[in-house]
Amino acid sequence: MLTAITRAVSPAIVHCEISFIDRRLIDLSKAQEQHRAYELLLEKLGARVLSLPAEPALPDSMFVEDPAIVLDELAVILPLGTESRRPEAASLAKSVSAFRKLSYVTPPGTLEGGDVLRIGRKLYVGLTKRSNPEGIRQLAAILAPHNYEIIAVPVTGCLHLQIGSHPHRRQHASRQSLVV
Prior knowledge:
Layout: E1 3-7, H1 28-44, E2 48-52, E3 68-70, E4 75-77, H2 88-96, E5 102-104, E6 116-119, E7 122-127, H3 133-143, E8 149-154, E9 178-179
Parallel strand pairs: 1-2, 4-5, 7-8
Antiparallel strand pairs: 1-9, 3-4, 6-7
């Protein structure tokens, strides 16, 4: 059965990292309601949802796709480009390890899952303010034995490669779950 790992919305989401847009008031109860509706939709579509508890000290932790990339062969745990977000990876890695062997990109490399777009055996990786050349180099080395091609893509004017066409959107539903 397909499993989607999610994490509940942090009560600290009002202090989330902001890039490329002006800070606006975030309605915590509405964000929690929308996230729960997303989880229910995943279940309705046939996925088993493994919902991790909120991380009260980590405002962006509901975006579980940023600290990990899950592939058929393994999962790669990533050092996020924003140092304040790096602690998100530890508990997520523990949950993902029940489903996949883990490998790690390490600093000084930085990489965020929102900068990775997979099409077959090709991974397009955005070179952004949060994903650097060293992180991309390490990812390529980790995945080389599994015959993945890594293609670096310079990205400007938006936060991540995956939402490059939507520079004014803060949330993107696909970043709220990892499929294992």
